[in-house]
Hints:
Blueprint lengths: L1 E7 L12 H10 L3 E6 L4 E6 L4 H16 L5 E5 H9 L2 H4 L8 E6 L5 H8 L7 E5 L2 E5 L11 H8 L3 E5 H11 L3
Antiparallel strand pairs: 1-3, 1-4, 2-3, 5-7, 5-8, 6-7
Helix pairs in contact: 3-7
Amino acid sequence: MKTYISILRGINVSGKNIIKMDELRRAFAELNFENIRTYIQSGNVVFNSKLSGTKNLEKKISKKILEYFGFNMPVIVKEITEITEVFNNNPFVNERNEGLNFLHVTFLSDLPREENLSRIHQIQNDSDEFIVSGKNIYLFCPNGYGNTKLSNTFFENKLNVSATTRNWKTISELINIAGRD
């Protein structure tokens, strides 16, 4: 049985797509997932499953959310090993020792195509920075994520993939929760 983390995009934001975490855990239980834990109200779920394949799990979870709650939303699933690798390899931490409060990771649903990547690299600005690493984008937003143009929508439009972002504290806490297995 593997440990996974699912990251839902756009729930409980501005009174839209409201999902209570106990209901979300019930929906996950109906998928025969085990040891289901949520972290904060933004759709972070740590769970164990005998099923494999993150794309397969994403489809199952998306379908269940549509069935259970009545709306479609992007879902990204990562194995705990992938999240730990993201955590351990942040260049803004390892190479520059930037403040953790200004760090985020945008998770992409798929590898971006090279021609799309070239479009975003032309957009770097003076304060906010990003580094693309496979299906992840490390963000450094010294003026806060709420003030950056490097949003989920920006990356989705430019890279033609689904995206969802979490701050560094959330990434750390998800690893901690998953480590309690």
